[in-house]
Amino acid sequence: MEGSIFRLSDLRSLICEHETIPPDTEGVVICDYALSDNPRSDSTALLYAHKALVEERRHFWIADCLADRYDARETAYQISKFVGKHRPARTHIERLSGWQYLENEIVRQAEKYGTELSPLTFFKPSKKPDCKRDRILLFKKACDEGRVHFVRGPWNESLFRSLCLYTGEKKNKGRKDDLADTCGYMVLKG
């Protein structure tokens, strides 16, 4: 599958083994959430990556991701579980409607299941025209420069499929771009 922005063969060429991640990296989780499990709504997308400076340039090793539709409580549970699994230094979550409820529910779920949470940072998304496209193109540039590495895992193909389906058009015509957007946020917040 070749997309208009991302090419599958190019993405696959960036796959690396877990052992290639430098030891002095900082782990980060990026979350783009939707508080609905409606089939037409966006998905909640979670991405875990390591980041480090290599020759004074920020590099990213994407080590895990998932995207699915969940109701509000399940969204909080999935975020808590994902953060607990990876234990990142930071967790960045897009600040959308319902963010205070989500924050409280993530903490409640973590306490319920004994999950240790990293600091949660809720950030306001930009309202500028084409901001999502700009973020994703920033990620594409980092890929083209060899600063993005995909750690081999069972999630690789679903992320690659999501990236290849992203066209940059204002209307996504049913193609979900939530994982592509988390990749853009990773580079922006990195």
Which key phrases capture this entry?
190 residues; alpha/beta; Nucleotidyltransferase, domain 5; 7-stranded mixed beta sheet; globular
Number of helices: 6
Helix content: 25-40%
Strand order of the biggest β-sheet: 1-7-4-3-2-5-6
CATH class bucket: Alpha Beta
Total domain count: 1
Strand content: 15-25%
How many strands, which pairing sense, and closed or not: the largest β-sheet? 7 strands, mixed
Gyration radius (Cα, Å) is 16 Å
The helix/strand series, from N terminus to C terminus, equals: HEEEEHEHEHEHH
Task: Characterize the structure shown.
With 190 residues, the protein is an alpha/beta fold. It has a single domain (8-189), classed as Nucleotidyltransferase, domain 5 (2-Layer Sandwich). The chain is built from six helices and seven strands. It has helices at 8-12, 72-86, 99-113, 131-144, 156-165, 178-189; strands at 15-16, 26-32, 44-54, 57-68, 90-94, 120-123, 148-151. It has a seven-stranded mixed β-sheet. Helix 4 packs across helix 6. The longest helix has 15 residues, at 72-86. The chain is globular. The protein starts with 7 loop residues before the first helix and ends with a helix. The model has no long low-confidence stretch (mean pLDDT 91).
Which helices and strands appear, and what pairs or packs with what?
Elements: H1 8-12, E1 15-16, E2 26-32, E3 44-54, E4 57-68, H2 72-86, E5 90-94, H3 99-113, E6 120-123, H4 131-144, E7 148-151, H5 156-165, H6 178-189
Parallel strand pairs: 1-7, 2-5, 4-7, 5-6
Antiparallel strand pairs: 2-3, 3-4
Helix pairs in contact: 2-3, 4-6
